[in-house]
Write a structure and sequence with these properties.
Blueprint lengths: L1 H22 L2 H5 L2 E8 L5 E3 H14 L2 E16 L2 E14 L2 E15 L5 E10 L2
Parallel strand pairs: 1-6
Antiparallel strand pairs: 1-2, 3-4, 4-5, 5-6
Length: 130
């Protein structure tokens, strides 16, 4: 049952990620992470903690022109106790200086079950396509 519960939480978290990007709401995105969450950006930078992740996402969201279409598709989930590992594919489509731009790749995440039973994103790692 843990697997089904983790999958539901991950699906919900990913839907929130998409909605946050489409609305341009960095706070909504940062809320998916644990307090000490870590985000490894495709440029190789590491953002630690919800505040840094919020600031990074705000900057990224402000640098693109809306509308933006985001897709996050889970490929596989493994669950080990209170930790879930997820792999998937991401794609961002938007206009940059009037030109249609597409950014896509794969990702690896680690989700942790919290004391209140909810699941939060602990590590998010983007693996961009060359």
């Amino acid at each position: 049952e843990t697997y089904a519960e983790a999958k539901r939480a991950i699906d919900k978290g990913n839907a929130q990620w998409i909605e946050a990007w489409e609305k341009g709401d960095p706070e909504m995105l940062a809320a998916i992470f644990t307090e000490d969450g870590v985000m490894l950006s495709q440029g190789g930078r590491v953002f630690k903690g919800r505040q840094q992740i919020f600031e990074r996402q705000r900057e990224a969201m402000q640098s693109v022109t809306r509308p933006i279409k985001v897709s996050v598709v889970t490929v596989k989930i493994w669950v080990d106790g209170d930790t879930a590992y997820e792999t998937g594919n991401y794609k961002y489509e938007y206009a940059e200086k009037g030109k249609p731009t597409r950014e896509q790749g794969r990702y690896v995440t680690m989700w942790k079950r919290q004391g209140d039973g909810s699941w939060k994103l602990s590590i998010d790692m983007a693996v961009p396509e060359k």
